[in-house]
Every structure is written in structure tokens, then in C-alpha cells.
Amino acid sequence: MRYRAWFRCFHGCPGEYSVYEVIYRCPRCGGLLEVAHDVDALKDRSAAAWMRIMEDRAGTTQWPYGSGVWRYKEWVLPDINDDNIVSMFEGNTNLFQAHRLGEHIGVPDLWVKLSGNSHTGSFKDLGMTVLVSAVQQMRAMGKPIRAVAAASTGDTSAALAAYAAAAGIPAIVFLPQGKVSLDQLIQPIANGAIVLALDTDFDGCMRVVQEITRDETIYLANSMNSLRIEGQKTVSIEIVQQFDWAVPDWIILPVGNLGNISALGKGLLLLKELGIINKLPRLVAAQTERANPFYLSYRRGFREKVTVQAKPTLASAIQIGHPVSYEKAKAIIKLFDGVVEQASEDELANAAALADRTGMYTCPHTGVALAVLIKLVQQGVIHRSDRVVVVSTAHGLKFTQFKVRYHENTLEEVMARYANPPVYLPPDIAVVQETILRRLDQVEKMFAMSEPAMAS
Fold this sequence. Notes:
It is built from 17 helices and 12 strands. The protein is an alpha/beta fold and about 450 residues long. The chain has a domain at about 95-120 and about 230-405: Rossmann fold. The strands form 3 sheets. A 6-stranded mixed beta sheet has the order 3-4-12-9-10-11, with helices on both faces. Strands 7-6-5-8 form a 4-stranded parallel beta sheet, with helices on both faces. A two-stranded antiparallel ribbon has the order 1-2. Strand 5, helix 6 and strand 6 (about 170-175) form a beta-alpha-beta unit. The longest helix has 20 residues, at about 430-450.
């Protein structure tokens, strides 16, 4: 195998470590690790040759290349044995042309990467297939790993439990008690994981899991483990491939623990190093006002890492006050001339509902990204001529109560501008006809979308 990948210190300390070693932080400085690739070796193929290879693999049934992650195997974990790969053919998700929504917002060339249209309903599948596959290889090598474990706000636990179940490896998930949706809670339960609901928030769960995984028989599966980042970086590669290897002007995504934006940038930088692209997009990290440490750090010029006590938010998956991947995300935002912006509960809920009116079914976290997009358009930062991609991180079906309460207009701090409650009527034809005519007038006005996207 002429291609290889290894762990190294993100801060530049000397040393290389096997990706099949149980290690999460640099032994010298205690900082996070990253997966490095021998890019010089990868350049033995031209950019055109790599593009042909990846295009030929797209949609194939040949194991494991039909996966939207393992299509890029040489760029992810090149030396893993194919027999140890644990895949649900994740990735390959739709790049939705959100033209109606874009016209209304003021950016007609708007696309939404529907990463929630994956096996467990979120982008977390992309990273988990890599991590669980690596664990499978470690176990085959004789490493005494008994279980994989992660702290989660919902989606990580679902992905970990499903992939671990497919591999036949026990999973342990730590959830903040009462702070994940019922739809998310049942996923790891159904997949047979050991589910521990702790009376704390995500940051508290994260502290516990880091202590528990000091025992090397329990392997840490959170995004501070750089194997996760290798899978998640493929979303940016896939976006570029879906545009026939052209780069959009902007990519916007909601952020919490900050692993995802780090991964997004890592994938794009690899494409540039290989000569496949010659420019980089600008990146936007979108946070909720109730859990906004990265936004506050950005506003202070990244002079220091800000941590907060995250408050309850509708965007529960990013209710994180002490993001683990801060240093990586800071470097990516700076390198990509990026922006960090925040959204209120009212803004995120109405942005999600507005997107739903154009055919999507949007999770509250995607609502954060869309609300931030609207703000940046109104501020003149993003222009009408720009091509913009919003990364939707999870499927709306995981957040049914959020949708129900929005349309009942019972969400705190939210004025539901696009509420559409059902109409309860007697079986009287005249009453039904009169109601239909009246409602059709309302719906036609709504579809004309003549109102501004968000109140200023």
C-alpha cells in the first residue's frame, strides 16, 4: 500500500502515532491530534485521474466504494482492510436546489446539503463509519477494546449505537438527562446500546466520558477523536464533486463542539493540495445565542477561548458551552476568511418553518444556519450573485415535538410567523367548502412569499 495516514499533534509537536493506537491527545502537550496523509504519495495520480476514480465509484455497488465516505478511501483511511469496514453506504446525500427559498431570501443560487438523509438521520454517520471501522481493525489486530463510548446530545449516540451494533461491538452512550428529543433517545436504545442519562448537560457528559475512556478497553468515539473528522470531511469533498468539482462561494453550517467545521475545512484543503480545486470557499459557523462560545470568541478576535454555561435551546444538538475542537475550528475560520454569526430562538424556528414551506423538513440546527444566512444577506456580507451551500445536519423527523409546538405556536420566545395548524370541522359540506376557499386564498398568498423572510 503506497498511501498511508497517521496521527500527529495538531499544534506541531514531533511524533507520529498509528491510527490504530488507542490515543486521543498529544503525549507531549496534551493538545488534540489530527490525521495526516502522505500528500506527496497521493500526487502520484493527477488531479484529473483522481476525479475520474471518484466519479466512477459514485453509486457503485462495489464494496466499499458505494459509500459516500469510502468512495474516498485513499483520502480517509487508505490502509484499512476492506473486510473490517463497517458501512451503511452513508453519504451520497442530496444537494437540494433551494431555488424558491433562495429567491425569497435574496440568493437564488442556494443549495442545501441534506446530510440528515443518512442511515441514522444525521451527518454523524460520516464520522462514525470511519471510527467504528478503525475499532474493528484494532480488535482484529488483538487490541483489547471491549466497547466504544461517547457523550452525545442525540445524533452522535444514534450513529455510534447503529454502527457498533452492525459491527457487533458494545456501545455506551452518555446523554444529558431530559435534554434530547424522544426520537433521538430511542435510537440508541433500539440498537442495544448501554444508555446512561446523566443529570448534567453535554459538557458534563463529556467530562465523564473522557474519564471513563482512560480505561483503554473502552474506546472514545467523540469528535475529539480525529478519526471522526476523517469521515466528516467527506461532506465538503462530496459537495464539490456534486458541482462537477466547482467550489461554491459560501458554505454555512451549524456548530456546537466544532468538529464539523474543522472537518469541512480539512476536506477542502486536501482537494486544493491535490490540485483538484484552485480556490477555497468562505465558511460560516452558525451558533444559537443560547450556546454561543465560538461566536463570542470570534467577536473578540479569537484572543482567547470563551466558554459559557450553555442554556436550553431548540437547537439542542449544539447546546455546548465548552467546545472541544476550538483550536481546530479557529484555525479553519481564519484560513477560510470565515464568519461566525448567531441566531435567536425566534429566528431559528421561523427560518426552519420558512424552509419547510418550500418543500424541506428542516431540523432546528439547520434553522440556525438558515437564520444566519438571512442575517448575512441582510447585512450585505453575502451577495445575490453568490453560490451558497447550507449544510443540513439532521433530518427533521428527529424533532417532531419542535415542529408540533411551532405550529401550535407554543414555543417560548418564538412568534410563529408561518404556523399552519390543522382546521377542525364538522362533516358539513357547506362549511368545508367555505373553509377551503378561505384557506386557499391564505395559502396562495403564502406561496407568493411576499413577506420578508425575517422580521428585522
